[in-house]
Amino acid sequence: MPLPCASPNKLFPLSTAHSYPSESIPAPSLYSASREKGDETSTISRLNTILHRLEIWGRRWQVSFAPHKTQLLVVSRTRHDIRLFFDGAFLTPSRELKILGVIYDDKLTFKPHIMQLARTTAGQLASLRRISWLLDNRGRELLYKAQIRSSLEYSCLAWGGAAPSHIAVLDKVQRRPERIIWDGQQRQPGALQCLQHRRDVAGLTTFLKAQVRRTPHLNQLRQAERRTEVLTRTVAAEPGALALPRSHSTHHQRQFTQVSTRLWNCLLASDSCPNNLTNTTVGLQMFKVLVHRWLSSVRDSDTED
Q1: Source organism's superkingdom (predicted)?
Q2: DSSP three-state, residue 102
Q3: What CA–CA distances, in Å, run from 255 to 153, 162, 173, 221?
Q4: Helix (H), strand (E) at residue 116
Q5: What is the DSSP letter of 99?
Q6: 216: Cβ contacts below 8 Å, ≥ 6 apart
Q7: What is the CA radius of gyration of the chain?
Q8: I want to staple 255 with a disulfide (CB 3.0 to 4.6 A). Which of 22, 137, 161, 226 is the partner?
Q9: Residues 275-290: pLDDT tens digits?
Q10: What is the mean pLDDT of residues 215-230?
């Protein structure tokens, strides 16, 4: 049975609960939509009401919850006195919250997640260095891509909009396996791609699924097409261009939707993009190769300039 999730304006179902070995489960995460100024009291009241309904649901279906396992994360630029009660216990707000391996902080900077990711990768690279003498260059490269780089790219579209100073930590980590793989030998060009390059390819591929393939679970990522009343050369060069969401902060401009929308419009305006991106003409792997070549050519031209 789906568990309720609280929103200031409406209630909508959340994912089903899963039992733990201790026969007690933490309460499901409660997400609150953006509230209007002065609406804090009513939002807290609605959340407490939902928690109370959840207690009643648990007693009815003989489900035991563990309040001490329930975490509360308040994402805000200002401090608020959020008092939520669940099963007779007061939920203390925490500074960080880990969901499916991604650490969210109360400022959404993703600095704790990136630092933890860098520490974990450092240990994996140390293990790779200890066994590097058993493998040739190709073997070390394959092991790095399969076991280490995959963890660096886990859920990258969620935290990819972090500050450049935080992302630079992962770029520094990327340079360590290059020394381990080639071990003083001449590096093969293009063997290890830039992490930001791979994040951009993943973002545009996700945009293709949302905009062209109409994947149902990505409907919320779908953007409206740009509306223009005056036909210009720029508009004519970008048929089907998307409306860029307005951003009033650099933090918002670095997020997935804004970055991918800009790249998508530039891709449509380039000569590398085919006129039809449907599944019958361009497969998913073909699109990834197309985006990879286009991004590489753009970055090469920027480097030459």
Answers
A1: Eukaryota
A2: strand
A3: 16, 8, 22, 12
A4: helix 111-130
A5: E
A6: none
A7: 23
A8: 161
A9: 777 666 778 888 899 8
A10: 80
